[in-house]
Design goal:
Radius of gyration: 15 Å
Structural class: alpha+beta
Largest sheet: 5 strands, mixed
Order of helices and strands: EEHEEHE
Distance between the termini: 48 Å
Helix content: 10-25%
Number of domains: 1
């Protein structure tokens, strides 16, 4: 499965260019906030495995009206690094690699 270029963004992580995107329209379950946002990532210059990441936030176009939480490039970079550490091989043809987004919330400082 390849990502469409339209609506996707490029990001360079550790010298490799990746393409990422969030689905423009929510699925029915995402619109009702029953399913979270899904992020799709692939290596930009090669065909291979697509990374599908379940994010902790709701889709920004949900019908419930919750506040949208943006997917930041820093979050995408952290997700790519974690997926690579967990065995995702973006340059090898394979089924989609599924994972949940890592917890990227700031940790409280200890004295």
């Amino acid at each position: 499965m390849a990502l469409t270029r339209e609506g996707s963004r490029l990001i360079t992580v550790d010298g490799i260019v990746y393409r990422w995107r969030v689905r423009g329209k929510p699925t029915y379950a995402q619109a009702l906030c029953e399913r979270p946002l899904t992020l799709a990532i692939e290596q930009a210059d090669r065909k291979g495995s697509v990374l599908l990441v379940t994010m902790p936030q709701d889709h920004p176009s949900n019908w419930i009206g919750g506040p949208p939480v943006p997917v930041l490039p820093s979050t995408v970079a952290a997700v790519v690094r974690k997926a690579l550490a967990e065995g995702w091989r973006p340059n090898q043809p394979a089924a989609a690699f599924h994972m949940a987004a890592p917890d990227l919330s700031p940790k409280p400082r200890t004295p």
